[in-house]
Write a structure and sequence with these properties.
The protein is an alpha+beta fold and 146 residues long. The longest helix has 12 residues.
Length: 146
Amino acid sequence: MFAGSHLLSIDEKGRLAIPARFRTQLADAHGQQLVITMGPKPCLEIYPLATFRGIAEQIQNMEDRRTADKLKFFFIGRAVEAELDKQGRVVLPALLRKQAQLDGSVVLVGQITRFDIWAEDQWNEMFGKQGGKKEDLSEAFALLKR
């Protein structure tokens, strides 16, 4: 499970170092193969290859062909396979970095089955320095059995 947030930097070659604890989880459960793409939010999404293949299969099997075609075009069509190097870095493709406005400081956010990568300024604008407005989250938290 991928959880937690990390402030990281993209280097001049477009590489992002994945934190060691996540690298271990990736290697144990999924291997080093990843898929990087754009989702509906202004950030990149990084999936273990097996997880991404499962999503692609769901899209392929959708009865609503119009929705499936949209998802293939916007989600699958921007997907790039990648692999962690020996130092635990992944190269974020230039086109995807540009589309997500990623340069320099980023926030890597665990989302259970994937990571999101946000530009630090967008992350702070969207969620604030305190992680979001509590009144906006209270309804969602009320649904959880904790």
